[in-house]
Structures
1.
Amino acid sequence: MPVSSRRRGRYMRLRQDIPNWLFTLAGIAFPAALILMWWLVSELGLVRPLFLPGPGDVMVEGLRQAREGILWEDASVSIYRILAGWLSATLVALPVGILMGNYRLIEGALEPLISTVRYMPVVALIPLSILWAGIGDAQKILILFLGTFFQQVLMVMDNVKTIDRNLIRAGQTLGFSNGEILARIILPAAAPGIWDTLRITIGWTWTYLVVAELVAANAGLGRRIMDAQRYLATETILFGTLFIGFLGLLTDYFFKRTGRALFAWQRQR
């Protein structure tokens, strides 16, 4: 068998490590291929520009928004709402999830209700959010909170429950109090998983942005997309959607890099 074939086979084995350069190249090549296909479809006129403008038109629209300052104004407003909604959810979900993961009584009391609410579509809660919080920023932040909290608290609970019980028993044998076991055993062991939960849930918060800015928003990336829909400005819709995805990607990258620095010991296990 040729050397090149053996190398390709080695890279395609289950859970096989690959060189960093190849990992990075794959992450660049696949999106580039999709953009090339998009460009070909638009250039060949296979789809009307009203339904799918070309990459160049979308880029021109993005440059226009950046030059006029619209993009930065909308982005700053949306980032503020994202951070406020996600941080609010996190500050409540962390202690509640940790308690549910450690005390069966609390889990039994809260888990059925939380599991029920998390299946409710966030869009259906918009009328209630307006009734409770008005139509200002508080309503947008509330929608982001509701879309994030109920998923997040159950994931934190699961992170805590995966800790080996033998570690907890060892702490009890050493005479640790419940607080000491929590601070010295459970939280350090659960921290990498909880960090991943925070990374995943802030990504979900980004996906709820357009829903949050659906009603009576005067600024924001989601509001710009909804306004563009009324006027069939497809290039604005596409650019806004892609830009939200780009900001979400940057957020994910930040959490991954920070997680590697905070929990370097986990990779060495």
2.
Amino acid sequence: MGEKELAKYPDNVDLHLIMGGLYLNLRNYKQAIDEYEKVVGLDQKNLVAYLYLAIVYTAENKLVLAEDNFKKMLEIDPENVTGMYYYAKLLADMRKYSEAEKMYQKVIALRPYFEVAVFDLAALYEKQGKTNEAIAFYRGYYEKNHTRLNVRIKIAELLIKEKKYEEALAEYQSLLNFDPNNREARLRLGILYYDMRRYKSAVVEFSTILKNNSADDRVRYLLASSYEEDGNKTLALEEYKKISTQSELYATAQIHSAMLLSNEGKTREAIRLIREALKINNRHVPSYLYLSSLYEKVKDNVAAENVLREGIALYPDNIDLRYALGVICEKMSRFDESIKEMETILRLDPDHAEALNFIGYSYADRGINLEEAEKMISKALQLKPDNGYIIDSLGWVHFKQSKLESALTHLKRALELLPDDYNVIEHLGDVYVKLGKLQEAQKMYERASKLVPENDLLKKKLFDLKKEIR
């Protein structure tokens, strides 16, 4: 229809603009440019054509051509705010930051309430690392435009970024004195209090919001979390219970409630709670993982395994579920099954450091496949070079290979990272025994025994060593 009309009226500027717009929406940039160029040929002062030519060239990443068209547009109308705004954005994209800043400033001078330009200019300051300039700019803008309360929120955000938390608090509080019903400011203030561990103050802000909207589950969750962190378990449980079963936060809230119950010795009640939650939402992976850990806590590894298999039936490629299942199988002395789970993980993610380490350590601990174990642990360590558990594993495989000096070096490093891990300490003691440094070995075994006084193997090692030293 449009092309037929153009054939009849080839000099109709409006038709060319309409066709240009259609081509632009279809992302047929070549045809769009052709239409807008025809407009310019017919009307050399057509601002719309220059603007859209610049926009199309920007979309094609032909930034110099886009800039040429903005310049032509602004030569015709030097105070065209729309053209100036998009030109400022282009200059920023071209990293001509100084020119972009000046152009944004002109836009804001002509149109003080053009908040998008205000936020863009502040973002440009931030992009250049000029956070203080951005704050000063916002403050100056607000002084002239006291009704623009969103600017105060932006100032507070930047102050938080600069870790000027008290100033940010003052900014939110000042805004709320002016507008007590500003939900966004009050929510951000509550979150800031929470992050600063000022939980009682966070409770006040979140409770105030809920007075106006008791169905806000996100704020309810934050209120419950504040009570939990402040040690008020009873009120935390009450608030978690109020979160709707339809809320996306419901399952997570039930996990927190279960944690509180389990920590009070009510693990069976916690298990029932998560079981009920899974009836409502059986697609929540963390619920399977946490429920499994609760069964482990009550020494029911069979139930722990079954829960994980329930989750895996729904999510067969979920690495967290499979890793937890592998660990459970190992605890139940089903070595081959535990290795099989870890191998499945490595098929899904060949760079899964924990699975590599698990297999490598398991081999080393049994004194089998030591060369393969060393390769797997070394790869894991490349992926996570500061992981104390992986460093311990490498030390342990070297111990099994009788590379005692290397084992000693790695285990000392592991101990620096994990000073309270009895396994690392015990491993170091074993190396000292092999090196004939019995006094050092005794110190390590005694240190480990203090951490796990009921460990019979450690008791025997220490007893035998003391006999040998005598």
